[in-house]
Amino acid sequence: MADPAGPEIQRLIQLLARLPGLGPRSARRAALHLIKRRDQLMGPLADALAVANERVVSCSCCGNVDTTDPCTICRDARRDPSIIVVVEDVSDLWALERAGAVPGRYHVLGGVLSALDGIRPEDLAIPRLVERASAPDMREVILALNATVDGQTTAHYLTDALAGLPVKVTRLAHGVPVGGELDYLDEGTLSAAMRQRTTF
Description:
By secondary structure, the protein is an alpha/beta fold. Helices cover 43% and strands 10% of the residues.
């Protein structure tokens, strides 16, 4: 049976299917929606993609993506330059920024150590982190890595890499989320919450 759409539309569907969270069926629906709303969506989206492709760069200091280098966060004079928050990826940086909880600056590793995926220390931005943490005015490095096996392995590796420096190395607390009910939490979360209990 022949394809119901031409090669140009098939290519659009294939490219959309590569996006996270979109499989072939979702990509077909998205492509049809874009085609139906060509004036309102497809043209502006194509323009936005062209501009992003031309102007977006990685920050040479922290690894964030922005249209300036250094990025807006690194240039923000209101942030405490003596605190570095280490994250796995830019999406984690954006999540912390939405929460408005970070007083310092960031460092994007570009992944986590993973023996299964073949990701080694030299594949990540670890040397740059050690260099930044070695600055004389640096006080604290906060490891804001995911609570996965690979995230925790990376946190331990970074703790060892930073051990000789006069900086405090901390990590995010793990445990009961705000509004969480104990009955719905997994055993690992409950154990971590109990180990990291604080004075009330």
